[in-house]
Specification:
The protein is mostly helical. The protein has helices at about 15-40, 45-75, 80-100, 105-130, 140-160, 160-175, 185-210, 215-235, 240-260, 275-300, 310-335. It binds retinal. The site of retinal has 20 residues, from α2, α4, α6, α9 and α11. Retinal binds near residues 113, 315 and 322. InterPro entries: Blh_diox.
């Protein structure tokens, strides 16, 4: 069986680990806020939830994603950067084509991308800042990533089925109005079956990790965070939950990881390190390309605003779009970039 080298203690300073605690505090604060609102019988309409999602995902999360690519590509040289961008655009084009050809399959892949990014990205943060000594083999790490990432989509699919099915419909409608109806009758069975698989996966992950632990504290951090994520996604309405998770949990923790491993990075080759000026230009060009791509998808899609509310339609459209650009973020920027990668931990 493939074994994985693990280290205890993690990199970084107390300040970097302080950011981990900050991510817990922020998520718990949102959770308590939502519970208090429910207790006081205050409900939030879908337009407000959609506004929160769009603020979190477009204003906060999107620029952070751009920064992750810049940080990964800086000092890697032009030939590497060109190959990276070429492959990136190829996957983007493939995913857009998939949405047009088979929008329900596209939706399933979008959900899988969110699970994968939350799961594997989250695991790398633990590697860097806490240690994952209780995860000894590749399959066990795969299971850990499935559980961690599954909290983001599988838990809300189970606990918020109405909103989940509605937004799934809106996302598919962008490309082929009415196409979700073909699978809608199986949604309940699917959701219950997937919920069962997920619950079993959580049990096996926690149990195996406990048996294989070296330090109890690292196992406790992992299962404690998993429990917090499950509670958060079960209790916070799905649109707000996902819209705040990516900027307030995922991105905040990735920046803690980047800080923690900064001193471990190979020293940059001055020949291939661009000036700050060049980095700013690349960032602006990246932003123009990103919004240009969104405009292109909106122009090509038959029904880009799939509901009569612009904010709600915006959530559906942006969820499709962010998944399209997040697929190569995971595959090209992290998995294929074996020397470094966006989630690099030495
Ligand atoms: C299906 C579905 C959703 C899908 C969201 C997705 C697929 C988000 C992807 C985010 C990514 C990949 C972020 C990367 O940084 C919503 C809108 C939560 C509402 C409930 C139903």
């Amino acid at each position: 069986m493939a074994t994985v080298e693990t280290r205890i203690g993690g990199f970084g300073t107390d300040r970097d680990r302080g950011l981990l605690s900050a991510s817990w505090i922020v998520l718990i604060a949102v959770l308590i806020g939502v519970l208090l609102a429910q207790w006081a019988n205050v409900s939030m309409d879908m337009r407000t939830q959609a506004g929160i999602y769009l603020f979190g995902m477009v204003v906060l999360n999107l620029p952070y994603g751009g920064y992750e690519h810049m940080a990964n590509l800086r000092s890697r040289g032009l030939p590497f950067g060109t190959r990276y961008i070429g492959l990136y655009l190829l996957l983007v084009a493939g995913f857009i084509a998939l949405f047009f050809a088979a929008p329900v399959v596209g939706l399933a892949l979008a959900i899988a991308v969110a699970v994968t990014k939350g799961g594997h990205g989250g695991l790398r943060v633990l590697d860097a800042l806490v240690s994952t000594d209780h995860l000894r083999t590749k399959p066990q790490r795969g299971l850990a990533a499935f559980v961690r990432g599954g909290t983001v989509m599988i838990v809300p699919m189970y606990f918020w089925p109405g909103d989940f099915a509605a937004f799934s419909t809106f996302m598919v409608d962008i490309f082929r109005p009415g196409a979700f109806a073909a699978v809608a009758p199986y949604f309940t069975e699917f959701r219950v079956a997937l919920g069962g698989v997920f619950a079993a996966a959580v049990g096996v992950h926690a149990g195996l990790g406990f048996v294989r632990r070296e330090a109890l504290s690292t196992w406790l951090v992992d299962v404690g965070e998993t429990a917090l994520l499950i509670l958060y996604f079960a209790l916070v309405p799905v649109v707000i939950a996902v819209g705040l998770y990516f900027p307030l949990w995922y991105s905040m923790r990735q920046s803690a990881r980047v800080e923690a491993i900064r001193d471990e990075l190979p020293s940059p080759d001055p020949e291939s390190t661009p000036s700050l000026h060049a980095v700013v230009i690349a960032f602006v060009l990246g932003a123009i390309a990103t919004f240009g791509l969104a405009a292109l998808v909106a122009t090509l899609a038959p029904n880009p605003l799939s509901t009569n509310d612009p904010l709600v339609s915006g959530v559906a459209f942006f969820s499709v779009f962010i998944s399209i650009i997040a697929l190569p973020h995971v595959v090209v920027g992290s998995w294929l970039d074996t020397d470094r990668g966006i989630w690099y931990v030495p």
